[in-house]
Amino acid sequence: MEDRARISLRPSLPGRLAICLVVVVSVAFLAYDRRWDLYMLPVPDMHHLSIDTSGYSIESLPFQFDVSFVRGHDLFYADSDGRVFKADARNPVGTRTEAGHSHTHPRMLFVSSHGTLFISGEDRRTKRSTDNGKTWKDVLHFLVWRMDEDEAGSTLFAANYSPRDHPLDMAKLWKSSDDGSTWQVVFADEMLDHIHSVRYDSLYRRIYMTTGDSPSRGEVWSDGQGETWMRIASGRGHGHTDLAISSHYVFWGTDDSYGRIIRAPRNPVTVGDTILFAKRHQVWWIVARNTQIYAGTYVENPKSLSGAFLIASSDEGLTWHKLLEVGKAGSTRKALIGESRNLSSDGWVYFTTSEGQSYRARKT
After folding, report:
1. Which of 98, 133, 137, 269 is most buried, with most CB under 10 Å away?
2. Contact in structure between 285 and 297 (CB atoms under 8 Å)
3. How many other C-beta atoms are found inside a 10 Å radius of the C-beta of residue 25?
């Protein structure tokens, strides 16, 4: 009888080690996810809120925009081609006029207290206009997602949103004391990829930033003009997408697929507590003034059966209203984006959807 080679079905030692590693990582991930599920049990869930617009007004707008910005009664917005429009927020349809063309697909629009316009787009350039959008000049050679201003000190802050893990870029915050004509770096960290949002607290003269998306991602703050920086928290579950400042609190919105609203006291600076969440959502933006808060979510997980939410609180997070849900179940991207960063003098917040419908909402 001929000898036959024996074929072993058992994997080699390196193969067994690889299998063990996959199993350990999978178990650890499931345990981590389950731990967050347990942590959220006592926290109100946005999914369980019914649509309730009582006390609020929501209007669908007959024009589309990708980005918007409000200052006082002035509404500015830009479409996907980079055309910039200006209108009176008391009558945005009847007063809108085209201010100029920036020739960029926009990610951010900002208007300083001096009326200077800034727009930043996917071509990784940030442009400045001092003539209401008629002409534009490059001032920063990177993409900016969010800007803010210390109006009393006439200082602008712009945070770079470089491509994730780009080898030539790192998280940086720039400031300008001449209305954006020249800029200087006041924060840089090569361990961080980029910055999601920056806000200035005029009462306590603090700069807040949320950074992402590296393992060192987190939240930092600085007193004064950015000479020294302190870390609030870092690691997975941090590096939130946006923040806003109300009368007594700092509100953070997470992008950890748990869509958490975190509320922290305005003074002293602390991490804060989760007061609302929506699993498989990201909180894409938060806007606040006095005791009024608005937040819009972003859903890119097709397992989510819900659309994106617009939520609001008129008592600094004690109670919440779900004002709107947009997007089809099962679609790969449902989002509320393009927020106006501020409320108008009459209390309107502007935003758009990933499907191209623009809205505004306010407390009545």
Report:
1. 133
2. no
3. 10
351 neighbors 338 (Cβ within 8 angstroms): yes
Reference 69, options 326, 348, 322, 325; nearest CA is: 348
The three-state secondary structure class of 95 is helix
The alpha carbon of 79 is separated from its chain's Cα centroid by a whole number of angstroms, namely 19
Strand order in the sheet with 206-212: 194-201, 206-212, 218-223, 230-234
How far is Cα 66 from Cα 106, in angstroms, rounded to an integer?
7
Selection from 210, 226, 243 nearest residue 174 by Cα: 226
| Three-state SS at 24 | helix
Kindly report, residue by residue over 48-84, the tens digit of the pLDDT. Answer: 999 999 999 999 999 999 999 999 999 999 999 999 9
Beta strands at 106-111 and 74-78: parallel, antiparallel or unpaired = unpaired
Instruction: Verify cis geometry, omega within 30 degrees of 0, for the bond prior to 14.
Output: no
More confident residue, 330 or 95: 95
Q: Are 215 and 257 in contact (CB under 8 A)?
A: no
In this prediction, residue 291 carries a pLDDT of 98
Does position 5 have pLDDT exceeding 60, yes or no? no
Q: Please list the residues that pair with 180 across neighbouring strands.
A: none
Contacts of 71 (CB under 8 A, 6+ apart): 111, 113, 342
> How many helices (H) and strands (E) in the chain?
2, 28
Strand 137-140: give its sheet, edge to edge.
106-111, 117-121, 125-129, 137-140
- pLDDT higher than 90, residue 289: yes
Taking the C-alpha atoms of residue 67 and residue 107, their distance in angstroms, rounded to an integer, is 7
pLDDT of 90 above 90: yes
SS3 128: strand
The CA distance from 138 to 118, in Å, is 10
Q: Tens digits of per-residue pLDDT, 273-282?
A: 999 999 999 9
